Amino acid sequence: MFKSTTCIAAGLAAMVATSAAAEGELNIYSSRHYDTDERLYSDFEDATGITINRIEGKADELIARMEAEGVNSPADILLTVDTSRLERAKNAGVLQTIDSAVLEERIPSNLQDSDNQWFGFSQRARIIFYNKNAVSEPPQTYADLADPKYKGQLCIRSSTNVYNQTLLASIIENAGSEAAKTWAEGVVANMARDPQGGDTDQLRGVVSGECDLAVSNTYYFARAIRKDVDGVSAERDVIGWVFPDQDGNGAHVNLSGGGVAANAPHKDNAIKFLEYLASDQAQQYFSAGNDEYPTVEGVAVSESVAELGDFKADDVDLSAVAKNLPEAQKTFNEVGWK
Questions:
Q1: What are phi and psi of 125, to 5 degrees?
Q2: Cα(228)–Cα(299) distance, rounded to whole angstroms?
Q3: Contact 280, 7 (CB under 8 A)
Q4: Are 334 and 247 in contact (CB under 8 A)?
Q5: pTM (predicted TM-score)
Q6: Half-sphere exposure of residue 281: CA atoms within 13 angstroms, side-chain side
Q7: What topology is assigned to 12-123+254-306 in CATH?
């Protein structure tokens, strides 16, 4: 359960070495492109004396680069978004198993790799949004999205989107392959249009009336609460939302996370940085700066995130979910989800 309660900050000093005399560097490959992450890097540098060097790019490109660099790779850490990409990095052999009592204590077991190769540091729930003027009884579960009564009403992203891939993979884990395929077929039948655009475009479709229902990650809507987002913020009062499956498994969450590179030249510094990302201070940055939910329990969320309300998250093991990703993509192809 996520709640906007205030917690006592554990303090950066409790999570990382704070000696001004600390030396060394840290090379981060990151596919997170958020200005607010700058504070994460600068505070870590100030506290430890460790200099951070960054290479930014798309997740698949960074993983391919690490593979090509092999044992000569300068990468110490890979940061990316979604369980699917974290698992892709693991399967590519570009991450390594690490031992950290801090991470084991702070990060819930279902939000980390079973072999300790990646860890989740922030979350976004994938939930249902609807036009309050058009829908009097919105879906309450993911299964409801396939109900024929919502035929022609749903906007959702393409099957190539990692958020949808992980959602279907979690349905496979929770309900089985046959039920997951039937669900995907029903969703395709209920689409108001062919999949197009990002999550914000699905929300714009609800505002414009092109669709009555949409599926989106929470942080896209929370961002429209915190600042102006064209086509959403000015009309956001028309949008209602439902955290699905609150009487069942709970709402599916997507992770943003990272792991230590397989050939990290500064492994100790890399582990320190991951431990810092699990500190109360860093966890609050994820929420305040990018409208995400912390993965560490008890950390306060930002006002924009708190406005969405409390919810029960699906506690399915995301490491197990990741193993269903190939089947999820095959299922999408079989049912004609473009």
A1: -80, 140
A2: 26
A3: yes
A4: no
A5: 0.87
A6: 18
A7: D-Maltodextrin-Binding Protein; domain 2 (3.40.190)
Residues in Cβ contact with 183 at an 8 Å cutoff, skipping those fewer than 6 apart: 142, 143, 145, 146, 168, 171, 175
Farthest-apart Cα atoms in the chain, separation: 65
C-alpha distances in Å from residue 197, one per residue of 84, 201, 203, 243, 298: 19, 6, 10, 22, 34
Question: To the nearest whole percent, how much of the chain has pLDDT over 90?
Answer: 86
Q: Radius of gyration over alpha carbons of the chain, in Å?
A: 20
Q: How far apart are CA 75 and CA 125, in angstroms?
A: 30
CA dihedral 298, 2, 158, 200 (to 10 degrees): -90
Structure tokens at 92: 């590519």
DSSP 3-state assignment of 288?
Answer: helix
pLDDT at 23: 62
Structure token pair of residue 305: 């995130």
What is the fold of 125-251+323-335? Answer: D-Maltodextrin-Binding Protein; domain 2 (3.40.190)
What are the pLDDT digits (tens) for 291-329? 999 999 999 999 999 999 989 999 999 989 999 999 999
Q: Where are the domains of the chain?
A: 12-123+254-306, 125-251+323-335
- Distance from C-alpha of 223 to C-alpha of 239, rounded to nearest angstrom: 14
Q: How far is 304 from 315, CA to CA, in rounded Å?
A: 24
What DSSP character marks residue 172? Answer: H
